[in-house]
Amino acid sequence: MQKGLILNAINPRLGGILIRGEKGTAKSTAVRALAALLPEIEVVAGCPYNCDPEDYNRMCHNCKERLVRGERLPRARRRVPVIDLPISATEDRLVGSLDFEYAIKHGRPRFEPGILARANRGIIYVDEVNLLDDHLVDVLLDAAAMGVNIVEREGISYTHPAEFILVGTMNPEEGELRPQLLDRFGLCVQIEGVHDPGQRVEIIKRRGAFEADPLRFLTQWAGEEERLREKILTARQILPRVTIREELLALITRLCVESCTAGHRADIIMTVTARTIAALAGQEEVTEADVQEAAELVLPHRVREAPAPPPEQSQPPETREEPPQQEENPESTPEQAEAPPEQPQENDCQESGEEPHGEEHKGEPEEGENSPAPPQGQDVVFAVGQPFAVRRITHGRDRILHKGSGRRSRTRTATRAGRYVRATAWLQNNDLAFDATLRAAAPHQVYREKNGMAIAIEKEDFRSKVREKRIGNFLLFVVDASGSMGAQQRMVETKGAILSLLLDAYQKRDKIGLVAFKGKTAEVLLPPTNSVEMGYKLLQELPTGGRTPLAAGLLKAYDIIKTHFYKDPNLDPLLILISDGRANVSIGEDKPLLEARRVAEIIHNDARIKTLVVDVEKDGLVTFGLARELAAALGAEYYRIDELKAGTLVQVVREMQGSGAVANLKEIC
Description:
Elements: H1 2-10, E1 17-21, H2 27-37, E2 41-44, H3 61-68, E3 75-78, E4 82-84, H4 91-95, E5 97-98, H5 100-106, E6 111-112, H6 115-118, E7 123-127, H7 134-146, E8 148-153, E9 156-161, E10 165-170, H8 179-184, E11 187-191, H9 197-212, H10 214-238, H11 246-258, H12 265-280, H13 288-298, H14 334-337, H15 344-352, E12 380-381, E13 409-412, E14 419-424, H16 434-441, E15 464-471, E16 474-480, H17 490-507, E17 511-518, E18 521-529, H18 532-541, E19 543-544, H19 550-567, E20 573-579, H20 592-604, E21 610-615, H21 626-634, E22 637-640, H22 660-668
Parallel strand pairs: 1-10, 1-11, 4-7, 7-10, 16-17, 16-20, 20-21, 21-22
Antiparallel strand pairs: 2-3, 5-6, 8-9, 12-19, 13-15, 14-15, 17-18
């Protein structure tokens, strides 16, 4: 963390640093200590952008115009500004907005600088950046990457310098950033608390010494801070002269390719970081050790899972060996699986508890095919698999005004709570948009009668606020607990995926419910509740066995959602079906698969319900893709179970050998 902060102090063009770690690990303390450590800067006195009087190319328009007119710019020295950006900040305060007073007096727009202007040549610190609205994070990262703030809003077109060090801190327990935003941070470090008892005691002592006599404590460490300050200044002078050899550029690109990073930002940032590390060490040429150290700061939050290799092609029928017989029953097909109960194949499956489709015995046997199946006539309780970080799951926006609270889906709200995103002429909720009203009235002030008032506002000027906030969803898990889920440890992986989604639901403050279907019926195991602990307990005890009444499971889930719509019209449900799609039990007279698709179409026609299908079918020589077909009937998002993992957070890189940087990266990840 210290190294990453110092590198950004030497070279602000690194794109900032994201500090991820547990609560209470001195993240905020380190950022503020960096500001106190940096030397004072020389600025143009009275300039709101802290312009450098010696750097014409990075001056604002006002300072450039003064120089062109032949003025001598007044100078002043000040400490490096540290701007705390609260998560409640609005876009107009961040980028700047219309100067109301000037517009009212003169009838013309003028730009009023915002936080990005005050932070030029300084530090912007965002605590819990993962809780900041995504569009504000986008604005921050764009400005940090370009070094300028471009404003096009409210009749204003303005550009000013905005070169700053962006430092974001976050606790992953509160939720993750989108992968696109993670990639925009130049560096990322993961920290945790100190575990050594002796060092923990020393932390207590130093904290106590500072609180007892702050001035004495600062004096004690002043020499050390001055040495580090001089080192930063020296590195800044060396940085423009640092070179990097061609073979090291090749090493950088190879590491990025092996890490499956998206795009070219990782390559560029790693090169700049390696040059900055060399400058900090007083070198004018980058070494391989510098590249390795840069990789440890640049790659961890950009590593993605390598794509799985394609399945091996099956041999031609005439050369393929006959698979070992697992049972005496003949091979069955999807059509046979859909046959009426009186057909022998389905009766045999019902007696043995085996899968009706028989694909496990068709073609080459798959890995894990010989894993034990549940005993006949008995249910088996499988263990819960390892949880993982799930990819971002959100609803698409709609035009419905919702109430409630949470952290998953962004929606417009009918209340006066939430972030003010824009104004409308449609008045509602007595929520006056004062700024938009003034903007609408400002151009007309030169000819309106004010009658002693500062500003004349007419009825047609009134604007109302449109607010947006995040709300939680109702996640209803519909879980296939039939005997086919016991093959190849599918239920272990399924329970692990459900546990991961439960943890994600806890972070997003969602309600959850659980429906399981097996045998001939579906059962509501957990009515809608906020208790994730109860969901986990039921998940542990969920048995597996019997046949697959898929239509019954979908219909039961639909009934639950409809019932709760009567209780809570603001309900925002997400139905998550976890199954391989192999229906073999009907509610009525139709074939099981046809019946399941009809129920799916009924759910699809209800626009209030969003759906997601998680396919647990294993890749093999023969796959039916029934879950994908069901997802199409539901109009649902479709994921294979492995695709639920958040790609940028899955620290698995294949074929990464032969490099010290890669070995270090694996340890960090």
